[in-house]
Amino acid sequence: MRRRHIGMCAAALAGAVIAGTAAAGGARAAAGAVTYGRSERLARGVDYREFTADSANGVVHGHVITIDLRDPRVRVDLLTPGTVAARAPVSQLADARRATAAVNGDFFDIEESQHPGVTPTGSSVGPEISSGRPLKAAVPTAQRFGPGLPAGETTRDVLGVGTDRRARLDTLTLHGRVRTAAGSYPLGGFNQYALPVGGIGAYTADWGAASRGRAVCGSDTSRAAGCSTDTYEVAVRAGRVVSVAEAPGAGAVPSGTTVLLGRDAGADTLRTLRPGDRVRVDEHLAPSAARVPYAFAVGGFPVLRAGAPLAGLDDRTAATRTAAGFGNHGRTLRLLALDGSAEAKAGLTVAELAGVLQELGCDNAVNLDGGGSTTLVARDPGAGAVTVRNRPAGGVERPVANGIGVFAAG
After folding, report:
1. Average pLDDT over all residues of the chain
2. pLDDT, tens digit, for every residue of 23-50?
3. How far apart, in whole angstroms, are the C-alpha atoms of residue 136 and residue 176?
4. Which of the residues 43, 135, 387, 388 has an alpha carbon 20 to 30 A from that of 66?
5. What is the spatial distance between Cα 330 and Cα 100, in angstroms, rounded to a whole number?
6. Between the CA of residue 154 and those of 142, 170, 173, 182, 375, what are the distances in Å?
7. Residue 331 phi/psi, 5° resolution?
8. Closest Cα to residue 303, out of 334, 331, 343?
9. Residues 162-219: pLDDT tens digits?
10. CA 186, CA 400: separation in Å to the nearest integer?
11. CB 74 within 8 A of CB 406
């Protein structure tokens, strides 16, 4: 299907964006001006644009989806393969939900060469909220995948959209307890691929069928640390222990069942439980900033906050990037993806990415998974499926843990 184009010239678009960014008054990161190319209206409140930007290593080509969150017919949500520990291409994730557009999301457990015999889970690093429902919490910061974090940032950082339809940067912290007749114990994990040393993690049907063995590998200071052999699992259903096991299990967790996995001191705590014992498990993700519930949230590390780039952003390593940012007091969301050819040619450093996001009109933004994961898809009006708009590295889509989906009526 032939794509419809927005009747606005590139120069006018670029001028409007640059003027709006200057008005925000934020300090700029080093990056050349953005020049817009072809534009297309995907639906009311959802626009697609191509752009080029100068970088220290040459000209990069990118793609951006702009979403007007003030339009009640437009919303965004987390795209997943159906479970936390699974992966699928962005186009498949988008078509399964009939999304208008989408980009890949958070970094994820992609390889386990440091732990021979352990299979990667494909699970994302940070928290996930989909359609208002928390799916997982963040792994310990030392166990993350991805480039180095700016000072003070953690795996708990998210970009989310609240039920008030405003985008925000926030942190989501797991608050939970395991309550038994002998006492109450803190919950250290919720559907995540790595647990803190000495912790207890809870796994539900949302986790999927992947082995939970990866969760006891690594440490609070090193992803490469070995796997604990001091482990114990307890399955809880209807408030009572129904089974126990010495080692982490695999296979789907039945609906209505919670599997508790302990490592080290956490395993010792769980060993006191026997089938038939009463156990209550509570967990929720607590935001540090928002006073309204999140309809959607995805992990990613901040590169812009309150109109200014974060201090200490990497300005040396150029790569293909995916990002999400917002302006207009959280009412305008932008999803960005570069062409994968940037890996062999120019690419953007994280500092340059922050500058480009400013040029696009964002005053808050996060860096998402890049490189071979970078994918942006969009659906032409009336089309039955999305098309990949950027050029993924290697020419094919990489299966990813999650994505940001855009949904529009009309």
Report:
1. 92
2. 333 334 455 689 999 999 999 999 999 9
3. 12
4. 135
5. 20
6. 9, 11, 10, 33, 24
7. -95, -15
8. 334
9. 999 999 999 999 999 999 999 999 999 999 999 999 999 999 999 999 999 999 999 9
10. 31
11. yes
State pLDDT tens for residues 153-162.
999 999 999 9
* Gyration radius of the chain over CA positions: 22
pLDDT over 50 at 224, yes or no: yes
pLDDT in tens, 62-76: 999 999 999 999 999
Please name the residue that has the structure tokens 């812009």.
304
Three-state SS string over the chain comes to CCCCCCCCCHHHHHHHHHHHHHHHCCCCCCCCCEEEEEEEEEECCEEEEEEEEEECCEEEEEEEEEEECCCCCEEEEEECCCCCCCCECHHHHHHHHCCCEEEECCCECCCCCCCCCCCCCCCECCCEEECCEEEECCCCHHHCCCCCCCCCCCCCEEEEEECCCCEEEEEEEEEEEEEECCEEEECCEECCCCCCCCCEEEECCCCCCCCCHHHHECCCCCCCCCECCCEEEEEEECCEEEEEECCCCCCCCCCCEEEEEEECHHHHHHCCCCCCCEEEEEEEEEECCCCCCEEEEEECEEEEECCEECCCCCCCCCECCEEEEEEHHHCEEEEEEECHHHHCCCCECHHHHHHHHHHCCCCEEEEECCHHHCCEEECCCCCCCCEECCCCHHHCCCCECCEEEEEECC
Handedness of CA 323, 324, 327, 332 (dihedral sign): positive
Q: Which residue has the tokens 């032409």?
A: 380
Copy the structure tokens of residue 393: 């590295």
